[in-house]
Amino acid sequence: MADYAGRTYEFVSKAELKSARKTIDGIIRQLQKVMREKYSITFKPILVGSAKRHLVTRVEDGNTGFDFDYNFSIQNDSDYDAREIKLNFIKELNKILTNTRYKSVKNNTQAMTIKFVDKSEIVHSCDFAIVNDYEDEDESFQWILIYNKKEDEYIWNKRRYGKNYGYKLSNLLENGLWTEVKNEYLYLKNYNNDPDKISFSLYLEAINNVYNRYDWVN
């Protein structure tokens, strides 16, 4: 399946993804330690989206590697505003990446992106989004820290938590529609024109698209 640029995507093997995750997990542990000690910020890293379901892709014969996503679920952010939190994360993450083959953090709209480069080729990259989950008896939603580049401002953007994606995915799996989800995800990867739309967002979009094709009658 090729996109407008003539690229074709393939799935990354579980073994290769496991190796990359091991390296990233080590970086995250260092980041957790320094953020807790220096800024009194604790967070829980949550692997999300395509990597969680072994749907990580890359361009065949390309040099852009593959990417996967984590949410950093903040546990205590009461003493810092959004700008401080994001910039402190970037500052300390860049320190950890010193003398590694990871490039400096790129501050995107929703995520902080790091890329592992071997010679001139990107082997893999990882997106870290900062979130705050809220749930009570009436509703569940998630705050995600957004960087508005045009206005140079940092804000917490409220979004419905998952839009019942867990429920939708369960129905799709039970009805043997997982292959259709995989195909839809590849299609969205191929035709995505938004550089700020991370893989996690495309994965959720694929679930929603496939679910909405069927008339679910219980």
Description of the molecule:
There is one protein chain. This protein is an alpha+beta fold and 218 residues long. The chain has one domain (9-162): Beta Polymerase, domain 2. Helix content is 36%, strand content 28%. It has five helices and nine strands. It has helices at 14-39, 82-97, 165-174, 178-191, 199-211, and strands at 9-11, 43-48, 57-59, 66-74, 106-107, 112-118, 121-135, 140-148, 153-160. The strands form two sheets. Strands 2, 4, 5, 6, 7, 8 and 9 form a seven-stranded mixed beta sheet that branches. Helix 4 (178-191) crosses helix 5 (199-211). The two termini are 35 Å apart. Residues 1-5 have low confidence and may be disordered.
How do you describe this structure in short?
This protein is α+β, with helices and mostly antiparallel strands. 36% of the residues lie in helices and 28% in strands. A hairpin with a 2-residue loop joins strand 6 and strand 7 (121-135).
**What percent of residues are in strands?**
25-35%
Instruction: State Rg.
Output: 18 Å
Structural class call reads: alpha+beta
Average pLDDT rating:
87
The count of domains is 1
According to DSSP, the number of beta strands is: 9
Largest sheet: 7 strands, mixed
Order of helices and strands: EHEEEHEEEEEHHH
Shape: globular
Q: Could you say what the CATH architecture is? A: 2-Layer Sandwich
User: Helical element count?
Assistant: 5
CATH topology: Beta Polymerase, domain 2
Poorly predicted regions are: 1-5
Q: How many angstroms does the end-to-end distance come to?
A: 35 Å
Broad CATH class = Alpha Beta
Helical content (DSSP H or I, runs of 4+)? 25-40%
